[in-house]
């Protein structure tokens, strides 16, 4: 194909046809288009954007570049959930058993963490024996029988997106709504769900720092989903401080268990129940979100929610005793209190800094090849709005490392303490349908 013509066409702000986009993507994957020409095209997209139709076509081309999961053997409306990433985000661990307990099939394919954001697969591996490498047969059988399964993603899922994302990362072309949206949605479409609930994080610990950008991304992804015949809803939720009180793999599973027992933090409980409510509505079990929310609250109060999580652990060969005995999770040897140096109120917490600190403690990866410490992490003792005095513990670092000085400094500097109490944080900013 004439790649120079494609670059010129996009540079001048004209729209590309679906055939032009698909041919370009497939030839790039085959190595027939050089990186420097694709980089020029991506830069043109950053400046000129893409129409909704172009973005949907780009998404579909990513999907068609690799494996697609056929879930047609699963009975019912299959609902998936995706988060754009954050610090302390253990929502998937909570909503999968909750929604499955309502009878909605949840076929969840998840990834591993990279950088300051955690991955669901890493977290689940903190449960002794938990198997995330399910065969397709077992994956489908578990969803049909128990309404739930969580497994790692295929390595050949959307290879075009993987290759183009790597190029975007080194050519400063990451921050483009059409490119971000097509990257995220291609993986969701390839995974075969009928309906998708998107959790778009916004704030200091999220990829999207401003509310306007987050809403634009949410609207674009919803448009893509609908254009490809997927029921899609997006929630824009807060990530200006870590979600809940725990950051780190084993820590976050323990906290998810507390939520399912009805003892969770207000912010993560509200976000989890709201996302689960929309999943239940898209799955056809309820007609409205409020009724679904009340039913989910009742599942927690009755103990059925935690029993469904216990069932998930059992069917994926994990040790269910961890649910009642948190000491069976991996335990860090060192625990370091980070203390307040002044009186006042916690006015702000830089969530990304907390994530970076946790990564340095061993809870995250700088590169995909890094081995993580499942016991490492941070407990947030104080949250935004809490009153503090000199010497009060703001957070506790958990690690097996002998020297944590850099992580300690980053964690301390993540807290801003003011003389007045800040406005209450809004946990959910918008719902886009």
Automatic annotation (TrEMBL):
Q: Which UniProt keywords apply?
A: Glycosyltransferase, Transferase
> Where does the Pyrimidine nucleoside phosphorylase C-terminal domain lie?
345-418
SUPFAM superfamilies given for it? Nucleoside phosphorylase/phosphoribosyltransferase catalytic domain, Nucleoside phosphorylase/phosphoribosyltransferase N-terminal domain, Pyrimidine nucleoside phosphorylase C-terminal domain
Tell me the InterPro entries matching this sequence.
Answer: Glycosyl_Trfase_fam3, Glycosyl_Trfase_fam3_N_dom, Glycosyl_Trfase_fam3_N_dom_sf, Nuc_phospho_transferase, PYNP-like_C_sf, PYNP_C, Pyrmidine_PPas_bac/euk, Pyrmidine_PPase_CS
Q: Which GO terms describe its molecular function?
A: 1,4-alpha-oligoglucan phosphorylase activity; deoxyuridine phosphorylase activity; thymidine phosphorylase activity; uridine phosphorylase activity
Query: What EC number is given for this enzyme?
Result: 2.4.2.2
| GO cellular component terms attached to this protein's record | cytosol
**Main EC class of this protein?**
transferase
- On whether Cell cycle is a keyword of this UniProt record, the answer is no
Reply yes or no: does the keyword Glycosyltransferase apply. Answer: yes
GO process terms (BP): pyrimidine nucleobase metabolic process; pyrimidine nucleoside metabolic process
Reactions the enzyme catalyzes: 2'-deoxyuridine + phosphate = 2-deoxy-alpha-D-ribose 1-phosphate + uracil; uridine + phosphate = alpha-D-ribose 1-phosphate + uracil; thymidine + phosphate = 2-deoxy-alpha-D-ribose 1-phosphate + thymine
| Protein task | Catalyzes phosphorolysis of the pyrimidine nucleosides uridine, thymidine and 2'-deoxyuridine with the formation of the corresponding pyrimidine base and ribose-1-phosphate.
Family in the record? Belongs to the thymidine/pyrimidine-nucleoside phosphorylase family.
Q: How does it assemble?
A: Homodimer.
Q: What is this protein called?
A: Pyrimidine-nucleoside phosphorylase
Q: Which organism is it from?
A: Clostridium kluyveri (strain ATCC 8527 / DSM 555 / NBRC 12016 / NCIMB 10680 / K1)
């Amino acid at each position: 194909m004439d790649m120079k013509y494609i670059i010129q066409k996009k540079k001048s702000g004209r729209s590309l046809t679906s055939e032009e986009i698909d041919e370009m993507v497939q030839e790039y994957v085959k190595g027939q288009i050089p990186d420097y020409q694709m980089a020029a095209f991506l830069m043109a997209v950053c400046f000129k954007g893409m129409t909704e139709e172009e973005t949907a076509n780009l998404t579909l081309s990513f999907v068609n570049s690799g494996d697609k999961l056929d879930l047609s053997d699963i009975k019912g409306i299959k609902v998936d959930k995706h988060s754009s990433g954050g610090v302390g985000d253990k929502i998937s661990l909570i909503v999968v058993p909750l929604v499955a307990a309502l009878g909605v099939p949840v076929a969840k394919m998840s990834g591993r963490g990279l950088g300051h954001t955690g991955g669901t697969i890493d977290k689940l591996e903190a449960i002794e024996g938990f198997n995330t490498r399910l065969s397709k047969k077992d994956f489908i059988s578990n969803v049909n029988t128990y309404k739930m399964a969580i497994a790692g993603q295929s390595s050949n899922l959307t290879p075009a997106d993987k290759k183009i994302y790597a190029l975007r990362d080194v050519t400063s072309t990451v921050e483009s709504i059409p490119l971000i949206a097509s990257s995220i949605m291609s993986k969701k479409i390839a995974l075969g769900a009928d309906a998708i609930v998107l959790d778009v994080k916004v704030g200091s610990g999220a990829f999207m720092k401003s509310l306007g950008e987050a809403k634009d991304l949410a609207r674009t992804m919803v448009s893509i989903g609908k254009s490809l015949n997927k029921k899609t809803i997006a929630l824009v939720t807060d990530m200006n401080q870590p979600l809940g009180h725990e950051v780190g793999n084993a820590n976050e599973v323990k906290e998810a268990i507390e939520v399912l027992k009805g003892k969770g933090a207000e912010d993560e409980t509200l976000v989890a129940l709201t996302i689960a409510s929309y999943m239940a509505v898209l799955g056809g079990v309820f007609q409205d979100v409020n009724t679904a929310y009340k039913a989910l609250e009742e599942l927690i109060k009755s103990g059925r929610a935690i029993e469904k999580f216990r069932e998930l652990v059992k069917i994926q060969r994990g040790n269910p005793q961890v649910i009642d005995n948190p000491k069976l999770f991996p335990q860090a040897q060192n625990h370091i209190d980070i203390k307040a140096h002044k009186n006042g109120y916690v006015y702000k917490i830089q969530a990304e800094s907390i994530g970076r600190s946790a990564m340095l403690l061993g809870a995250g990866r700088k590169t995909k090849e890094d081995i993580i410490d499942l016991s490492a992490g941070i407990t947030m003792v104080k949250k935004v709005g809490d009153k503090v005095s000199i010497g009060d513990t703001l957070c506790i670092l958990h690690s097996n490392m002998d020297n944590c000085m850099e992580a300690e400094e980053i964690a301390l500097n993540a807290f801003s303490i003011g003389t007045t109490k800040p406005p209450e944080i809004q946990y959910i900013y918008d719902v886009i349908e």
